[in-house]
Amino acid sequence: MEASSLPIDSCSKEHQKIYRDWFNIADSDRDGRVTGNDGTKFFAMSKLSRQELKQIWAIADSKRQGYLGLKEFIVAMQLISWAQAGHEITFDILKSSVDLENIGLPAMEGVDALAAKKDFATNGVHDINGSNHHQVPASAKWFTSKSSKKIPPSAVTSVVDGLKRLYIEKLKPLESTYRFNDFVSPSLTNSDFDAKPMVMLLGQYSTGKTTFIKHLLQCDYPGAHIGPEPTTDRFVVVMSGPDERSIPGNTIAVQADLPFGGLTTFGGAFLSKFECSQMPHPLLDQITFVDTPGVLSGEKQRTQRSYDFTGVISWFAAKCDLILLLFDPHKLDISDEFKRVISCLRGNDDKIRVVLNKAHQVDTQQLMRVYGALMWSLGKVLNTPEVVRVYIGSFNDKQINEADDPLGQDLFEKEQDDLLKDLLDIPRKACDRRINEFVKRARAAKINAYIVSHLKKEMPSMMGKAKAQQRLIDNLQDEFAKVQREYHLPPGDFPSVEHYREVLNNYNIDKFEKLKPKLVQAVDDMLGYEIPELLKNFRNPYE
Questions:
Q1: Which of 210, 292, 306, 419 is the most exposed place for a label (fewest CB within 10 A)?
Q2: Which pLDDT score is estimated for 4?
Q3: Separation of alpha carbons 434 and 310, rounded Å
Q4: Are strands 322-327 and 288-291 parallel, antiparallel or unpaired?
Q5: pLDDT bucket at 174, cuts 50 / 70 / 90
Q6: Going by C-beta distance under 8 Å and a sequence separation of 6 or more, which residues neighbour residue 224?
Q7: What does the pLDDT read at residue 399?
Q8: Alpha-carbon distance 58 to 100, whole Å?
Q9: Is 340 a residue whose pLDDT tops 90?
Q10: What mean pLDDT is predicted for residues 284-291?
Q11: Which of these, 199, 223, 419, lies nearest to 288 by C-alpha position?
């Protein structure tokens, strides 16, 4: 369980009000966040040991964001009170049944004197989510500002803020100069950094993708259709919202606070097959699910799709934190389209998990054979020497008859627990994943800059430009090899030759920019010095 999802409502209203006032005292710059410096000063009033406070901060900031919102601050205060009562603080406290309602206020020496000095009547009041009603986070304005002024380091109050600043100042100039958004991925927006972790479900029709989401939520969600035929004919994003409703794709794609603006590049044909399903749910406060249309077999299905199906999957794969490939025991064949879908996940292998669903439909001996056949099929498609993690189970709400298959029941329960653990671990790792994706993007932007500038360099200055461009496009594989040798780059980091060839046909290579070493050096400095420094500044302040 995440610290921010602990039952804060069990804290009495009277205590909540006091904690809000204390939060306002600790939050010296009034931005709705208690950072390491603020926290260490305020927590020192508890007179607990450094080791105890280190553990308390680690539990409260379980997502490793580098700051505490109001929810996390209240958790920290309750843990301080628990420690002052003589209890040991461990991560197991989140799983134990501690009676939070009856935990008294912690003893914070000198807090009353500080409260008397500060007058909060003129300031914005923080809500339970730690936001300030009178204040938009400063980082949201960085992406809309026309000014080229640098963002002051003091404006950065979290790891994600730091990544936003580095993106705008260091990485975006390189991306814009060498058309990274046309060749690889659209430019990032504020909502891309602030989005909740996403889990995408892929599989052939009727493998139980929609039922799987229903099973996790323990309820229906708007727009869920289930049946033996291909029922989900669109991409459905299931996310948290104030009420139950479905929002059409064109509307979601233009909402600045949602990270789906980049999908407009796939056109209206795709957006008409895209929708967002919103509902209030504690799990959706932590994770967003992406349900996809069943992958069908046959060449006809590929040619009759009115949008770039694998392109959309690839776009979501880059944004997602986990990709679940669902199979059922009677549909183990991997069709041509499914092969293309799996191959477009290249570069995201660490996110892939395989789920052998509906396993209750076969007995134990058959299940063993099915598992072997599945691994054999996957071995031909997933080009990796490592064995992919496969979860076996029946992820639906039907009860399995234990008398019929006691071994299956025990196995399914253990596998389901492992998968749920994997899913619930996602929010805790979301910040680390964001850094990982940012570094991957920076490397891809550098390689794109080298490729584009190399092609420009190979163009003649006067005559025969059209022929030279065609020759470069035809021999693109060789040009990639030249770039690789010149800059000593790993071959596995290079993008798809076919994709670049397709994009280059729409451009005049002569109009591309020459290599600007200063822009590349800025990204190298960012990767070598500034990101490590950022992580050091926002780690646990007691380390």
A1: 306
A2: 45
A3: 23
A4: unpaired
A5: very high
A6: 210, 213, 214, 236, 277
A7: 60
A8: 19
A9: no
A10: 90
A11: 199
3-state secondary structure 202-241: EEECCCCHHHHHHHHHCCCCCCCCCCCCCCCCCEEEEEEC
In angstroms, the Cα distances linking 9 to 4, 12, 32 are: 12, 7, 19
Among 217, 218, 278, which residue's Cα sits nearest to residue 246? 278
Tell me the pairing of strands 245-248 and 274-279. antiparallel
Q: How many helices (H) and strands (E) does the chain have?
A: 24, 10
CB of 321 closer than 8 Å to CB of 426: yes
* Best CA proximity match to 309, nearest among 223, 258, 235: 235
More confident residue, 420 or 237: 237
How far, rounded to the nearest angstrom, does the alpha carbon of residue 107 sit from its chain's CA centroid?
38
Report the pLDDT value the prediction gives residue 231, as an integer from 0 to 100.
Answer: 54
pLDDT tens figures, 440-467? 999 999 999 999 999 888 888 877 888 8
For residue 67, give the 3-state DSSP assignment. strand
Nearest to 329 by CA among 274, 291, 374, 364: 374
- Maximum alpha-carbon separation in the chain: 84
CA geometry: angle 528, 151, 194, nearest 5 deg: 80
275 backbone dihedrals φ, ψ, rounded to 5°: -150, 165
Question: Which helix H or strand E contains 276, and what residues bound it?
Answer: strand 274-279
Please state, in angstroms and rounded to a whole number, the distance separating the CA atoms of residues 294 and 292: 6
Written as one letter, the residue type at 243 is: D
Amino acid at 497: V
Q: Dump the DSSP string for 129-181.
A: TS-BTT---HHHHHTT----PPPPGGG--SHHHHHHHHIIIIIHHHHHHTTHH
What does the alpha-carbon distance between residue 276 and residue 26 come to, in Å, rounded to a whole number? 38
Token pair of 184, please?
């690889």
> pLDDT band at 8, cuts 50/70/90?
very low
Amino acid at 194: D
Average pLDDT, stretch 237-262?
A: 88
pTM (whole model) above 0.85:
no
